[in-house]
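Take a minute with the sequence and C-alpha cells given here and flag any C-alpha cell that looks odd. Thanks in advance.
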Amino acid sequence: MYPMYSQTLDESLFLAVKYNNIEEVKSYLDKGANPNAQDEYGFTALMYATLIDIAKLLIEEGTDVNIKDNAGATINVYC
C-alpha cells in the first residue's frame, strides 16, 4: 500500500494504477476511492492504466469514460 506517499485514497489509487498493482487498486476501490477522481491535469486513474485488467476493473467500478481532462480529451484519445 502507498499511504505514506500520498494523502488521500484517490491519490493512493492513482499510484496503485501507475505501479500496475491490481490488488492495491481493488483495495483502494473497496475502501471508497473515487474511480472518477481527477488529478491536477484532469486525468482519471483510467487514463494512467496500462494493464487491460486494471482498465476493466476501473470501468466495472464506475469510471466515467466520458470525463475530459484539462485539455478537453477523453480516454479515447489516450487509447
Observations:
- The chain has a mean pLDDT of 92.
- Helices lie at 9-18, 22-30, 45-48, 52-60, 75-78.
- DSSP finds five helices and no strands in the chain.
